[in-house]
Amino acid sequence: MKKPYLILILVFLSTQLVSQYQINLIPRSSPDKGIYHKIGYTEIDIEYGSPKVNERALWGEMIPYDEIWRAGANVATTMTFSEDITIEGKILPKGRYAFFVIPRKNGPWTVIFSSKPDQWGAFGHKTEEEVMRLEIEAVKSYYSEELSYRVEQKDFDNGVLVMDWENIRLNIPFSTQYLDLLINELDEHLNKSSEHLKWVLYLQAGEYLFNQKKRTDLALEWINESEKLSIVEGNWDKRYYPKDYILGHLYWTKAKLLAHDAMYEKAVDYALLMKGQKGKYNFYEEENEYESIDAQIENWAIKAER
User: Fold this and answer.
1) Is the Cα torsion angle 74, 75, 81, 87 positive or negative in sign?
2) Which of 51, 74, 88, 242 is 20 to 30 A from 263 via CA?
3) What is the helix (H) or strand (E) element at residue 95, kind and residue range?
4) In the chain, what's the furthest Cα-to-Cα distance?
5) Which residues are CB-neighbours of 105 under 8 A, at least 6 positions away?
6) What CA–CA distance (Å, rounded) separates 194 from 234?
7) Distance between CA 255 and CA 265 in Å, rounded?
8) What pTM was computed for the model?
9) pLDDT tens for each residue of 136-193
10) CA distance 153 to 20
C-alpha cells in the first residue's frame, strides 16, 4: 500500500504536468483573439488570450498587485506595429512586442513592451529585454466579463490602445509618423513616375494633407508644384481620368487652400478656372452638388469684398 504522502506527491506532479505540457490537443479555456487596425500608414495587430472573470476576485487576488502579468492568458499578449509610433514623447520602433502589465493597488499601473514576443505568459520576462516601460493610470469603466483589446482612432495620426477587463480600463495614447511616411511615399512614387504624371502625385498628396487639416502650408506647396508641372506634355494614359477633369480638381483644391488662408479673391479666381474646364467628364459638373461649389464661391466672393 502506497503511503498517503506519496499519493499526494504523485497527484501534485500529475496536475503540474497537465498544466505545463501543452500540445494543443484540446481548446484553451481562454480563447485566443486578435484585432487589426490601421491608422494612416501604420498597421497594428494585437494577439491575446481572453480570460473571463467567472465570478472571481481579480485585482490584488487572482492577479496580484506589484507583480508582472501577461495582460491576457496563455502565451504573452503581443502587439505588432508596421511603423514607428510615439508614446508619451518616446519612440517605439516598428516591430512585434510582448505586452506586460504590473497592476498597482494605488497609483498608476506599469505597462511594458518587451523585445521577446514569443514566450509563455510572463514567466521568462527579463528587464534587459524591455524596449519601453510606462506609467499609465488605470481608470474605472463599464463591466467587461471578457478581457478585450481595441484601437480607438482619434484622427488621422493619433489613436489609443485600450485594454478592458472587469471594471478596469487602461488607455495608452499614441501617435504615428504620418508626415514622414507620406513624404517617403510621395518621393518613392515620384521616382517611379513618368514626368508628365508627377503633377497628379503632388495633387493627391496635397489634397490628402488638406483634408486631414495637417500642414496646410506644405499642402499648398505641393499643390503649387502640381500646377507648375501640369504643363509637361506626354501621352496620357486612358486608364486615368481625362486630364481636363484632373486640372479642374487641381484648381478647386488650390481654391480651397487659398480660402483656408483667407486669400478669398485668389480662391475665387481659381474656382472660376475650375468651372472653365471643358470636356465630357467635367469636375465641376460632377462635384458641384456634392461639395456645394457654387455656395462656397459665393461665400468667398462676399468675404473678398469686405
Assistant:
1) positive
2) 242
3) strand 95-102
4) 107
5) 59, 60, 65, 66
6) 9
7) 9
8) 0.73
9) 999 999 999 999 999 999 988 899 999 999 999 999 999 998 888 899 999 999 999 9
10) 39
| Contacts within 8 Å (CB) and 24+ apart, 205-212 | 206/253, 206/257, 207/249, 207/253, 208/182, 209/182, 210/253, 210/256, 210/257, 210/260, 212/155, 212/156, 212/157
Do the beta carbons of residue 110 and residue 66 sit within 8 Å?
no
Domain boundaries, the chain: 27-176, 178-305
Going edge to edge, which strands form the sheet with 109-114?
Answer: 32-39, 42-49, 78-81, 95-102, 109-114, 130-136
Separation CA 203–CA 189 (nearest Å): 13
Measured CA angle at 251 (ends 250, 252), to 5 deg: 95
Total count of residues recorded for the chain:
306
For residues 165 and 148, the answer to whether their CB atoms sit within 8 Å is: yes
Contact 78, 97 (CB under 8 A): yes
The residue written with cell numbers 504523485 in the block is: 10
What is the rounded distance in angstroms from the CA atom of residue 221 to the CA atom of residue 295? 26
